[in-house]
Amino acid sequence: MYFTDRGIEELDRRRGEEEVSLAWLAERLREFVDLNPEFETPIERLATWLARLDDEEG
Question: Which residues contact 40 (CB under 8 A, 6 or more apart)?
């Protein structure tokens, strides 16, 4: 188990029943980076990965 799994598990436990829009998620990610600019690169990578999930490989 990775250390980050604990946060993911907490998110699932506390908010797993909620439905949110991707626009809502994008705004929360922007807020997070504003408050924690040192995480800009990982958040950018996560957002790009999520945005491209349906793209064909290769």
Answer: 33
DSSP one-letter code for 38? G
Q: Quick one: what percent of the chain has pLDDT higher than 70?
A: 90
Side-chain half-sphere CA neighbours of 42 within 13 A: 7
Q: Give 56's pLDDT tier (boundaries 50, 70, 90).
A: confident
* Closest-CA residue to 51 (of 33, 25, 32, 31): 25
Q: pTM for this one?
A: 0.79
∠ CA 25-43-29, rounded to 5°: 30
Q: What is the dihedral of CA 20, 50, 39, 10, to 10 degrees?
A: 50
Spatial distance between the Cα atoms of 19 and 27, rounded to a whole number of angstroms: 15
